[in-house]
Amino acid sequence: MVKKQDRIERAEHRSDQRSRYAEQDGSVDAFVNECRLAIRPEDFERVHAEAMATAGDSSHIFDMMVVALSRTETEITPSLRKAIDRVLNVYEWDRDRLPTLATLRYNDFWKREYGYE
């Protein structure tokens, strides 16, 4: 009976892991799609190809795309900010994990759209 219970628990654990990985991959995919809309096409294609070739998993793709957003000085729209926040929440990361997040241009959208300073 113990063996059967162990098998059931392991199967449930594997199922939970698969669900978590699917949620993580989905959040990174949504983030990458928002990046595709925000970054100039030639910059996006170059960075995305490099990220896909060298990344070990979805979190590496996220890291590389955040660096690309910073380097290209892309303004962060509300939808892109939500995508970033979702990835951070799904992975349960603190913003301090990526110092590059502090260099992103969050306020540019609001300045352009609404004249905020």
Hey, roughly how much beta strand do the residues contain? under 5%
Q: Can you summarize the main beta sheet?
A: none
Shape: elongated
Question: What pattern of helices and strands is seen along the backbone?
Answer: HHHHH
Structural class: mainly alpha
The separation of the N and C termini measures: 67 Å
The whole-angstrom Rg is 18 Å
How many distinct beta strands?
0
Q: What's the mean pLDDT score?
A: 87
Q: Determine the number of helices (DSSP H or I, runs of at least 4 residues).
A: 5
Contiguous low-pLDDT stretches (5 residues minimum) are: none
Describe what you observe in this structure.
The chain contains five helices and no strands. With 117 residues, it is mainly alpha-helical. Helix 1 runs antiparallel to helix 2, helix 1 runs parallel beside helix 3 and helix 1 runs antiparallel to helix 4. The longest helix has 37 residues. The protein is elongated, with a radius of gyration of 18 Å. The model has no long low-confidence stretch (mean pLDDT 87).
Topology of this structure?
Elements: H1 2-38, H2 41-54, H3 58-71, H4 78-91, H5 108-114
Concise summary:
By secondary structure, this protein is mainly α.
Attribute tags:
mainly alpha, elongated, 117 residues
